[in-house]
Amino acid sequence: MSAGWPDNHYDIVIAGGGMIGTSLALALAPLGLRVAVVEAIARKALDQPSFDDRSTALSRSTQRMFEAMGLWDEIVASSTPIRSIHVSEQGRFGFSHIDAEEQGVEALGYVVINRVLGNVLQSAMNACEGIHVVCPARIVCVDLAAERASPVVRPDNGTQQTLSCDLLVAADGANSAVREMMGISAKKSQYGQHAIIGNLRPERNLQHRAFERFTAQGPLAMLPVADDRAGFIWVVAERDAERVLALDDDAFLGELQKEFGYRLGEFSHVGKRASYPLTLTSAARLTATRSVLIGNAAHGLHPVSAQGFNLGMRDVAALCDCIADCRVETNGVDPGNEQLLARYAHWRRSDQKKLVRFTDGLVRLFGSSRQPLRALRNVGMLGFDLIPGVRSLFAKHTMGLAGTLPRLSRGVPLK
Ligand SMILES: Cc1cc2nc3c(=O)[nH]c(=O)nc-3n(C[C@H](O)[C@H](O)[C@H](O)COP(=O)(O)OP(=O)(O)OC[C@H]3O[C@@H](n4cnc5c(N)ncnc54)[C@H](O)[C@@H]3O)c2cc1C
User: Are 120 and 56 within 8 A, CB to CB?
Assistant: First the structure.
């Protein structure tokens, strides 16, 4: 990690050093650019919003990216493979099953705790000469001009300073303030639900199976994590979230067990819980003068199909491809030029829109008690398993392998 450049000029400034901003900085490393990452909250702070106690299911395309970046061996050492996914609906007998072997892959994905992933990414950044981390500090305003972007950085303890860069990347999450500073609006719709996360010990080991169960309140996922434990993501109605979170361990386990059933035997030893309000966020545009949105700043999804981070990683891969190609074409100048930004926006729009529609559709399909939707859902559950190609298309999306893939998503190093 470098101590910064005296003239405060960078090729790229990344606003937000969460899961996506940090991954972008590392992915860019082989290009030898001068990169600054400005992050508001110290990585080890208890309120760090990105590298927290959630478990994230990494898709095949994210795995390939980390392989190409030389980080996968370390990540896989502390993650758990998912070899099958079991999808069911409360109150119905049918269920669907997606199997890694059937898809011709070793695993459908890998589960990692965000904090653990953060440790790996942080030590890789520490070893990287070209990355300057400014933390804790916030970007508080931005001037975007044709020749350069000038973000103003306010450290927690210290004096405000203005940086300059060829490209400003907003990776500051779903409530992105930098997106607003870029003059880009976002459509937001509240799901009226919260995701309660934590981990527990099931009587029967998950044996590398992930479970997703659609309940009257919302989806409930159980993911295999280390030490015979399961990470859960339990979506509850907003009006119920505070009460559920305040339950003592036994009462909490009792309610969770009632929703999930006894497929994994009895639940015990539940850990600390946390709650996340769920909102669908979609930015009106992906770029402005010398600036671009990636990750949750561009699209914040419902966690129903564990896709948000993986989709953001495909933004990272596409942006890296655009920058790498442009440097070859223009002999190393200007990662913030208009053509590059237009190519990125064109490339990413369709994947992002499809996934927003797909996850939003799943939530509405399974969350509705309206008769026509219930009927559609019944066909959907059957069709999902019986109609040739549907299951494999779903699996492809789950693995992040649908659409045109950039180099890193195919596991090809940038350089
Ligand atoms: C319960 C739950 C479970 C999930 N499970 C999965 C899963 O299994 N698989 C999956 O793919 N996705 C999953 N997701 C989605 C995933 O967590 C997000 O898509 C991902 O964290 C987005 O990362 P990000 O870096 O874009 O944004 P964030 O994680 O929000 O990070 C933004 C960073 O920017 C910093 N910041 C904010 N404002 C400023 C500023 N002005 N200046 C500087 N820094 C700033 C913040 O401190 C933060 O560190 C889940 C989400 C939830 C809620």
Answer: no
